[in-house]
Specification:
445 residues, alpha+beta, Helix Hairpins, Heat Shock Protein 90, 5-stranded mixed β-sheet, 12 strands
């Protein structure tokens, strides 16, 4: 596991060292250029001074009488005088012999494995050469660069301590927040306090709080689903158990057959309830994050109308459709289930000889789906409650689970749509009107 403090410390110190070395390198080359220009001037002035002294003292007895001006020991210069008339060579003891120059001026010479910078001038029969080891110039430039880098190296420990303290102070709120979270109960989903947190950490804590909120909603939905499922399954299972007991106690084949018919109906109701519960569970809580595609509503509505027609004919109910071009972004299986549930609901509650109409169209840029019937309708005061799980209107005699409209409402919410209940066909019955946003607007955030 990496440490932010250690990483920041090493990164900052590394950056300072890199900057220091870059500055030292630039200083070295700059100083080297300055020293080269200065020392070249020094060599030239020394040679010219000796040449001028020779010209003023001609004829002279010996080169040892020459006066050397500005010969600083620090610069480690070598002076050589060659007398072309006598062929004699004069230089200081312990200094290397310099080659005779090809002409006056500056040049670079290789002597005993070292590079020398030389300057030559003629004075009568004498050729005066002043030379300096190039390494002396490099050493002077390196010394100047080191003096730049030395204070930085001395300050590095103090900089490291300061960075350690500053980073520790900056990370203290994060450590406090971590300890606060560690002390929490596993069931605690209350938001983490952002009081006194820096902006960077507050963003992270806010994101965690949003996650806790969604997690709380998910857990609440799961708990409610488990409680509701257990409650609703208890009744049909009890009924099945009673039907089995009645079948066991039946004394005639006719009574036993009647019990088996009721038992089969009870199994069908329990199976439908389980299927509805599983459908509802699959839609909670993050179904809106699933990929969506463009759905053509007209063929979908026509297909559902044709599929449900045989079921409606058993009650002599006619199903028609008025499908105009309309589109929406969504999950096709969920939209089909939504319209099918509403149609099945209409068939179950519409009396024999009734009629049902499925519609889809576009209005003001919005896609609209309507399922209309001429059944008994829903009282205005109950139109909002019918979407609650397991809720069934008072006086309802038709069997059902109370989950169909809850599933419809959940699918509408997933697709960022709205649902309204209005009067149905012929001034009676019910119209479920589903309105969805235009293409692209219902995509999950």
């Amino acid at each position: 596991m990496t440490s932010i403090r250690r990483k920041l410390l090493l990164t900052l110190i590394g950056a300072l060292l890199a900057a220091g070395f870059a500055a030292a390198t630039a200083t070295f080359f700059s100083a080297q250029a300055e020293f080269n220009a200065f020392l070249d001037t020094h060599l030239k002035e020394t040679a010219d001074s000796l040449g001028e002294s020779v010209r003023q003292n001609l004829p002279f007895a010996s080169p040892s009488h020459l006066t050397i001006v500005g010969d600083a020991p620090t610069y480690k210069t070598v002076i050589q005088v060659y007398d072309s008339a006598s062929g004699s060579l004069w230089r200081r003891d312990g200094t290397p012999a310099l080659p005779l120059p090809e002409g006056p001026g500056f040049s670079l010479e290789k002597i005993e494995g070292k590079t020398w910078r030389t300057y030559s001038v003629s004075a009568g029969p004498l050729i005066i050469t002043v030379a300096q080891d190039v390494a002396v110039r490099t050493e002077l430039a390196a010394t100047a660069a080191f003096r730049i880098l030395q204070p930085l190296c001395f300050l590095l420990p103090f900089i490291g301590i300061a960075v350690w303290i500053v980073v520790g102070s900056g990370l203290a709120p994060l450590e406090r927040t971590a300890r606060s979270v560690a002390r929490r109960s596993p069931t605690s989903l209350t938001p983490i306090s952002t009081k006194g947190l820096p902006t960077e950490l507050a963003g992270l804590v806010n994101a965690i709080n949003q996650l806790l909120e969604r997690l709380g909603e998910s857990l609440t939905a799961q708990q409610r689903f488990a409680s509701d499922a257990a409650h609703e399954l208890r009744t049909p299972l009890t009924a099945l158990k009673l039907q089995v007991q009645l079948a066991q106690r039946a004394k005639t084949p006719e009574a036993q057959a009647k019990c088996f018919v009721r038992l089969n109906e009870g199994i069908n109701r329990a199976t439908r309830l389980v299927q509805q519960l599983l459908t509802l569970a699959r839609l909670d809580p993050d179904a809106s994050k699933k990929p969506m595609s463009t759905i053509e509503l007209a063929p979908l509505v026509a297909s559902i109308s044709e599929d449900m027609a045989p079921i409606a004919q058993q009650k002599s109910i006619s199903i028609t459709h008025n499908a105009q071009p309309a589109q929406l972004d969504g999950m096709e299986d969920a939209i089909r289930l939504m319209v099918t549930n509403l149609t099945d609901n209409a068939i179950r509650y519409t009396p024999e000889g009734g009629r049902i109409e499925l519609r889809c169209f576009t209005r003001n840029g919005l896609s609209v789906v309507e399922v209309c019937d001429n059944g008994p309708g829903i009282a205005p005061e109950e139109r909002q409650r019918v979407f609650d799980r397991f809720y069934r209107a008072l006086g309802t005699k038709t069997s059902g689970t109370g989950l169909g409209l809850a599933i419809v409402k959940r699918i509408v919410d997933i697709h960022r749509g709205t649902i309204e209940i209005d009067d149905g066909l012929d001034g009676k019955g019910t119209t479920f009107r589903l309105t969805f946003p235009p293409l692209g607007a219902s995509q999950p955030v």
